[in-house]
Amino acid sequence: MTALPSRPSATPSRRSAGVRTRYAPPHLHGMSTLPPRLARYRWLLGIAPAVAALDQITKLWIAAVLPANTYGAPGHIEIVPGFFNLVLVGNTGAAWSILSGRSSWLAFLALVALLGIFLFRRHLELERRAVQIAFGLLCGGIVGNFIDRARLGHVVDFLDFHFGDYIYPTFNIADCGIVCGVVLYVLMNLRQPRPAKPENPASGKA
After folding, report:
1. pLDDT greater at residue 75 or residue 23
2. What pLDDT shows up at residue 206?
3. What end-to-end distance do the CA atoms of the chain give, in Å?
4. Can 175 be counted among the known catalytic residues?
5. How far apart are the C-alpha atoms of 9 and 1, rounded to whole Å?
6. Residue-wise burial string across 56-73, b where 16 or more C-beta atoms lie within 10 A, e elsewhere
7. Distance CA 48, CA 137 (A)
8. Domain ranges of the chain
9. Which residue in 55, 148, 157, 160 is the catalytic one?
10. Is 165 a catalytic site residue?
């Protein structure tokens, strides 16, 4: 009898051929579509828009439920009596009303700050994840307040805290992002070990 030709063996799999496949977690598949230069800053590019969006959403909400200029006036929402209120005020200055009435100038400074962060990204070590988190908070806050200045001519503040007789200046989510980002970056620099000083060979004993 004529022997039937044997079926060709199946193409060896990549694993059987000794080729290892790299596994990427599902939540990183979307990041793989970013260009390589942007993918290295994915934490910053994810956090900054989220902070800016949360800031704008909360401001739109408070403007819809409260009348303007309710700081120290009827119409505010008392969350914790004597401690925490929701108000609605417009701030044309920076924190603690510094440079009040200079909203356009402060908007320009915000753009300069963002440009400086971009130009000095290598010096700031923005490729490190922790640094990206800090600057993601900072940049998101800067963008959130910049949108207010460009759209309204002032920044919307609504978080009002009282500590006994001391009244903390009203602020918003963008301000929280800026403060948290700066504090986180400073703490990282303080905890970073200093490079050891090279020994002077001339000072050694013969």
Report:
1. 75
2. 45
3. 95
4. yes
5. 23
6. bebbeebeeebeeebbee
7. 6
8. 38-192
9. 157
10. no
Instruction: Determine which one of 55, 148, 160, 175 is catalytic.
Output: 175
HSE value, Cβ hemisphere, 13 Å, CA-based, for 23? 2
What is the pLDDT at residue 20?
Answer: 47
Residues 6+ apart with CB under 8 A from 99: 93, 105, 106
The amino acid present at 196, given as its one-letter code, is A
Q: What is the pLDDT of residues 141-197, one digit of tens each?
A: 999 999 999 999 999 999 999 998 898 899 999 999 999 999 999 999 888 765 555
